[in-house]
Amino acid sequence: MFQATRRRLAIWYTAVTAVLLLLFASAVYLYVRSTLIERIDDTLNHVVEIVERSLVMKTVV
What we know:
mainly alpha
């Protein structure tokens, strides 16, 4: 009798822990992904500004 209850409790505990871990990992993944994409966009915009300035300088001279 107690073995079945113990087994069901263990399965529920495992399932709840797995779901919580999946939610936490997904949140961390989405945060890191959006942060990296934002930083890459900023870096690319900065590079474009530098290239534009260098092209303007060369055409003026």
